[in-house]
TrEMBL record:
Residues 2-113 form the Response regulatory domain. The modification 4-aspartylphosphate is found at D53. Residues 140-242 form the HTH LytTR-type domain. This is LytTR family DNA-binding domain-containing protein. It comes from Fulvivirga sedimenti. GO terms for molecular function: DNA binding; phosphorelay response regulator activity. SUPFAM superfamilies: CheY-like. Keywords: DNA-binding, Phosphoprotein. InterPro entries: CheY-like_superfamily, LytR-like, LytTR_DNA-bd_dom, Sig_transdc_resp-reg_receiver.
Length: 242
């Protein structure tokens, strides 16, 4: 597993690199000391894992994650226990307190073996010009709440002004992004632009009914209903083999 270490403290990076030598399954392929360096390095190296500091000059680790379309697995590194506990409300892989202890590092790395492999999805993504597919993970931040969410768990995206409402589990956080921009990044084999306001996850479609003016009404698992515009109905029927 290829990893990057992102921390503004040189000694902290050096110490973690030394500890990781005991874990042959982890290959450190680069380091970054700030957000700008990290974004460039992530785009260049396409790592599987980030060891990410939370508080850095010029921004936080969360600010970095918000700039990424596809988020690698993340193990946070922090000097502030209470900050980490408040922030990682759902699906954080792990966080390590500074100074990093070898036993806690081992515990965090062991969790990686429980995560699903992305190898097959990586091939698929590359062939689809790096479109985001169901096995990709995204970072969602709404106020003080943060989530790491697999796209397979997101059933619906809904435009709301300059924001998008993201539907997963019982959550509906808002992110500052346009639906058009998001539509360009998602794999069209898995996500469908139902209308000007909605993108649906096709794997969540449970029932389809004819609707007014040649449109369709789609019911998703869990009960959400989305109207497919007349313009998109023919394409939707073709994709769903109706």
């Amino acid at each position: 597993m290829k990893a990057l270490i992102i921390d503004d403290e040189r000694l902290a990076r050096k110490e973690l690199t030394s500890l990781l030598k005991e874990h042959r399954e982890i290959e450190v392929i680069g380091e970054a000391a700030n957000i700008d360096e990290a974004v460039e390095l992530i785009e260049e190296k396409n790592p599987d894992l980030l060891f990410l500091d939370i508080q850095m000059p010029g921004g936080t680790g969360f600010d970095l994650l918000e700039q990424l379309d596809r988020v690698p697995k993340v193990i946070f590194i922090t000097a502030y226990d209470e900050f980490a506990l408040k922030a990682f409300e759902v699906n954080a892989l792990d966080y390590l307190l500074k100074p990093v202890q070898s036993d806690r590092l081992s515990d965090a790395i062991n969790k990686l073996s429980m995560e699903p492999s992305d190898s097959e999805e990586t091939v698929s993504v590359e062939s689809q010009e790096k479109k985001l597919g169901l096995n990709d993970q995204v970072f969602v931040k709404d106020g003080d709440k943060c989530w790491f969410v697999s796209l397979s768990n997101i059933r619906l995206f809904e435009s709301d002004g300059n924001y998008i409402k993201v539907y997963f589990d019982g959550n509906r956080p808002m992110i500052h992004k346009s639906l058009n921009a998001l539509d360009q990044k998602l794999d069209p084999r898995s996500f469908f632009r139902a209308s000007r306001k909605h993108i649906v996850n096709l794997s969540w479609v449970e029932n389809i009914e004819p609707w007014f003016n040649g449109g369709l009404m789609v019911r998703l698992k869990g009960g959400d209903k989305v109207e497919v515009s007349r313009r998109q109905a023919a394409k939707f029927k073709e994709m769903m083999s109706l």
